[in-house]
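EI: anyone free to look at a 156-residue chain?
SC: sure, send it
EI:
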Amino acid sequence: MTRESHNANLVFSKPSALPWERKVYRNKHGRGLRQATFGIRLPRYRTKSGAFDGMVVAQLKRLNAAWPELLRDVQCAVEDVPASAPVSWESRRVALSQSFPANHGIPARIVLYRKPIEQRARDRIDMQFIIRDEIVARLADLTGKHPEDIDPDWGF
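SC: here you go
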């Protein structure tokens, strides 16, 4: 058998797929999951902070549709907790949000604190109302308007 005829009889297999294109995500020795447990569109995929951010964005879109000039120069941020808690002898309540006026070229900012809002809310609907009320109250602080002028449903 010559070398040419030997090579002609070989069957070339398909090149193996890249690891991230395979159906099996982990090893086959029982040490891990073989495929995704749930899809990315299922509710379990979203984290608490991701859901909270989605609620903030929804309220900002709603307010921007009604008052685009109010939100044009305002940045909004979400932090987990306020920078420091009040000392035991202070009678100040826990801050749910805070506003910072424009200063030296830095635009005005509104900061919402996720953990205090989540602790205060009874359910998701209540959390949406608290987020709405805090954003409207901080916008009112920054612009000098009454919160009812910005959103007639404020406080309900």
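EI: The domain at 46-150 is CATH 3.30.2010.20 (Zincin-like).
SC: 👍
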